[in-house]
UniProtKB/TrEMBL annotation:
This is D-isomer specific 2-hydroxyacid dehydrogenase. It comes from the Bacteria. Residues 114-288 form the D-isomer specific 2-hydroxyacid dehydrogenase NAD-binding domain. Keywords: NAD, Oxidoreductase. It comes from Actinomadura verrucosospora.
């Protein structure tokens, strides 16, 4: 539904929560709105009376404590696909619309996952280690053609991963909230209640699910016990999807062949973590979606939504706050803006 420009002509007031690196290319947004840049200590004072919040510092845990009892923003946009840090009661139970940055990270993460699958199959991490030790040790490697991959999480990132792996010759299935057959990207989607059964058939288990109460610790000792000794686990979703102590134990005991982890329960990963020194583990610093230009793309998405907000049009990537992600059939939500403060 089109609402047109606001009647008063007053542009919205937007608060941007900055981190160490400021958002680049904000000139277009600044032409659409009054933009105030704040850091964590100033956030609580900035929120009352503002119209929108841009959570550029998407790792910040400051919002729950800073959230006003009344007069807060009616729209919050986060510069990430995950919104778990926003789903505190004051925001979930209120009328504030939440949007995320779905779509920015899909293809880069899919490429990264394909690279990890190839690294495991061709033992590239061992080759690099041996090169550093100046050791010549011939090995045989594995084929990926015909290998079976299970992607847990059937949203846009999971679908992009499925398409990349399928194109590389793997047989891919999914695990999601709703079971179905004939899916265009996964073929078969297993219900999450049968995740353990699906894991038992996978050579590569890829985690791309959102963090919700139902997915926290989805890979625990029981799940790992169902995996093949030759299987590898790849996590590009959220760290708490995996019970890390259980994973360390399974890797140490040889119950699975390896793991590639781009996300962790606590980040940065502590130097004392045993994961660093395991030869069958690839550790990366939460970088799977961060291809060159990603910051600028995040700002462009926010600016497009800000233009929609300022003119009362439907927003992109509206999150179902009860579910914690954008529903596949969600078209967005119009937010009439008439210059008034809530």
């Amino acid at each position: 539904m089109e609402h047109g420009p606001n009647a008063s002509g007053e542009p919205p007031r937007v608060v941007v929560l900055q981190g160490d690196v400021p958002p680049p290319g904000m000139a277009a947004a600044e032409r659409l709105a009054h933009v105030d840049y704040v850091r964590k200590p100033q956030l609580a004072a900035a929120l009352p009376g503002c119209d929108a919040l841009f959570m550029w510092d998407f790792w910040s845990d400051a919002l729950a404590d800073a959230w006003p009892r009344e007069g807060g923003p009616r729209w919050v946009h986060i510069a990430s696909a995950g919104v778990d840090r926003l789903l505190f009661p004051g925001l979930v139970e209120g009328n504030t619309i939440v949007t995320n940055s779905r779509g920015v990270f899909d293809e880069p993460i899919a490429e990264y996952v394909l690279g990890l699958v190839l690294a495991f199959a061709k033992d590239l991490h061992t080759t690099v280690r041996l090169q550093g030790e100046r050791r010549w040790r011939h090995r045989e490697t594995e084929r990926i053609t015909g290998a079976r991959a299970l992607v847990a999480g059937t949203g846009p990132i999971g679908r992009a991963i499925a398409r990349r792996l399928t194109a590389a010759g793997l047989r891919v299935e999914g695990a999601g909230r709703t079971a179905r057959e004939g899916d265009p990207d996964f073929g078969v989607v297993h219900p999450m209640e049968r995740l353990h059964d699906a894991l038992a058939e996978a050579d590569y288990a890829v985690l791309a699910a959102p963090l919700t109460p139902g997915t926290r610790n989805m890979i625990d000792a029981a799940a790992l016990a169902r995996m093949r000794p030759s299987a590898r686990l790849i996590n590009v979703g959220r760290g708490p999807l995996v019970a890390e102590d259980d994973l360390v134990e399974a890797l140490s005991a040889g119950r699975i062949a390896g793991a590639a982890l781009d996300v962790f329960v606590d980040e940065p990963l502590a130097p004392s973590s045993p994961l660093w020194g395991m030869p069958n583990v690839i550790v990366s610093p939460h970088m799977s979606g961060d291809a060159v230009g990603w910051r600028e793309e995040l700002v462009r998405l926010f600016t497009d939504n800000l233009d929609r907000f300022a003119h009362g049009r439907e927003l992109r990537n509206v999150v179902d706050k009860r579910l914690g992600y954008v529903r596949p059939d969600a078209d967005g939500a119009p937010i009439p803006y008439a210059g008034q403060r809530r």
